[in-house]
Specification:
With about 375 residues, the chain is an all-beta fold. It has 3 domains: about 10-135; about 145-260, no CATH class; about 265-375, no CATH class. Helix content is about 0%, strand content about 35%.
């Protein structure tokens, strides 16, 4: 029996957590090294300051890491505005991590990536602790495809083992298809207009019974909406479709798309029905999750919630640490927010232990989850619980 396709999840996804060590001009750059079982050279980095209300940023090696390359999932801002470099940014990947450098807003300009407490112990409103979520694709090496009729041209770098690809393309303004390189149909697609202030469009294969006709927005609390963003066409093993919406396909405009397909024992993209009770549902993933993203799709006003195993290393009441991805907000727990947001990470999935609407309202919720380790290895060895 095949329990998992990937025994060591850290070869394809890792969470890094660090404390800043820069005071003003004292440290201009620093290397963050991963601590997983395998080395991981990341191709997509999602960085977040954890202790102040500040933006989170997405970078990738397709476009390159630079001050004007970051995308902010809490806003619709273009990915060329340079805001990702004001407070420091990832400047290069290494064989097992990445380098962060100082930003451009003055002597205390590392608050997004590496600020330390001042000598008097204060932080003067700057972050001092950070987390980065990292996915491996293909080391920045792309396969290209040309524009054909109404189908956009561009390229992709892909990790077929882990079901992840980064696709860049130039829109045609007419409905068309785009190669993704996964060889299986993607189950989650996140697309951003690089050049303009358009929303982050999200496809999730469990978003309603006809997900190709609907879409979510990563940068808002909106419920799922009907539209032709995906041209009412489900992704195939070779392409995904886009309509004429500016979020995904304006003529001559460049876009970036992050595509995932579920891999047994490593990743799962599903849905569950909330129970509106503290004894909430158990969601089976087939692995011990390292990272979970959850969104209530039925009602407006509910944030995108993220939890990870590094900031929440054990289970218990009031210990789960969360981010609202669609807001410029620091991590929070029940204790400092007054919001009951309990969730237990288990060896084979996760258990909702709160009635909080973002996690357990009597609605449909979708999730993305990536593994710390499979429930059972390919050799039949079970993982231990927390």
């Amino acid at each position: 029996m095949a329990y998992t396709a990937i025994d060591d999840s850290s070869a394809h996804f890792q969470v890094a957590k660090w404390t800043g060590n820069s005071q003003g001009d004292a440290v201009a750059s620093r290397t963050i090294t991963n601590d997983g079982n395998s080395d991981l050279q990341p191709d997509m980095l999602w960085t977040i300051p954890t202790d102040i209300d500040s933006y989170n940023w997405i970078y990738d090696t397709t476009r390159g890491l630079a001050s004007n390359k970051g995308g902010n999932p809490a806003t619709s801002d273009a990915m060329t505005s340079g805001n990702g470099g004001v407070g420091g940014y990832p400047s290069a990947v290494t064989s097992d991590g990445f380098t962060v450098v100082k930003g451009s807003s003055g002597t205390v300009a590392t608050e997004y990536v590496n600020q330390a407490a001042h000598e008097d112990g204060t932080t003067s409103g700057f972050a001092t602790s950070y987390v980065a979520y990292q996915w491996k694709a293909n080391g920045g090496t792309r396969s290209t495809f040309t524009e054909s009729g109404d189908n956009p041209g561009g390229g992709y770098q892909v990790n077929t083992t882990a079901g992840f690809s980064i696709v860049d393309y130039t829109g045609t303004g007419a409905a068309g298809t785009i190669s993704h390189g996964l060889t299986v149909a993607p189950e989650v697609i996140i697309v951003k207009n690089i050049e303009a202030g358009e929303d982050w469009a999200v496809y999730h294969h469990k978003n309603t019974d006809a997900p190709e006709t609907d879409f979510l927005k990563l940068n808002t609390t909106a419920a799922t909406a009907d539209g032709t963003v995906w041209n009412d066409t489900a992704p195939t093993t070779s392409v995904f479709s886009v309509g004429t919406d500016a979020d995904v396909n304006s003529d001559g405009v460049t876009y970036i798309a992050y595509c995932w397909a579920g891999v047994k024992g490593f990743s799962k993209f599903g849905m569950y029905e909330g129970l509106a009770a503290a004894n909430g549902p158990f969601i089976y993933t087939g692995f011990k999750p390292a990272w979970i993203l959850i969104k209530n799709i039925d009602n407006v006003g509910f944030n995108w919630a993220v939890i990870d195993h590094k900031r929440t290393p054990f289970n218990g009441e009031g210990v789960a640490k969360w981010f609202w991805i669609d807001l410029a907000s620091k991590e929070f727990t029940d204790t400092d927010s007054g919001i009951d947001m309990d969730l237990d990470i288990l060896s084979n999935g996760f258990k909702i232990t709160t009635a909080r609407d973002e996690l357990n309202k009597a609605n449909t919720l979708v999730y993305m989850a990536f593994a710390e380790s499979p429930f059972v290895t390919s050799g039949g060895i079970p993982v231990t619980g927390r």
